[in-house]
Design goal:
- With 106 residues, the protein is mainly β.
- It has one domain.
- Helices cover 13% and strands 40% of the residues.
- The protein is built from 1 helix and 5 strands, in the order E-E-H-E-E-E.
- Strand 1 and strand 2 form a beta hairpin.
- It is elongated, with a radius of gyration of 17 Å.
- The two termini are 26 Å apart.
């Protein structure tokens, strides 16, 4: 069964940080549904004090990539989510050890 990672990039300009926020196993549809649930919980439409934010928008970049932009009176925040499929793993006999498909080391 395919394995997936939900990758989140947070920040501004050159200061983006990339994190794998969840790894999961299943179909692409299952993994995408989980990513969309994660997107809906990030920077929700209400502030911690319960006030409504000015804008929260979600942009679809591709079938596996979304950008969330939250704009409030005092700040703007953006996060880019990507669904990535695991294609190489040196500790898994079912997968090649490199992205090029080689089972040998470089």
């Amino acid at each position: 069964m395919p394995r997936w990672a939900i990758v989140k990039a947070d920040g501004e300009a050159e200061a983006f940080r990339y994190n794998i926020i969840k790894e999961l196993e299943g179909t692409e549809a299952q993994a995408l549904a989980e990513m969309l649930r994660k997107i809906d919980t990030v920077a929700e439409a209400l502030t911690e004090a319960g006030r409504r934010r000015e804008k929260r928008r979600v942009f679809r970049v591709s079938d596996r990539s979304y950008v969330v932009r939250v704009e409030s009176r005092w700040s703007n925040h953006e996060a880019h989510f990507t669904l990535a499929e695991l294609i190489a793993d040196t500790h898994d006999d079912d997968l090649p050890s490199s992205a090029s498909g080689s089972t040998q080391g470089p």
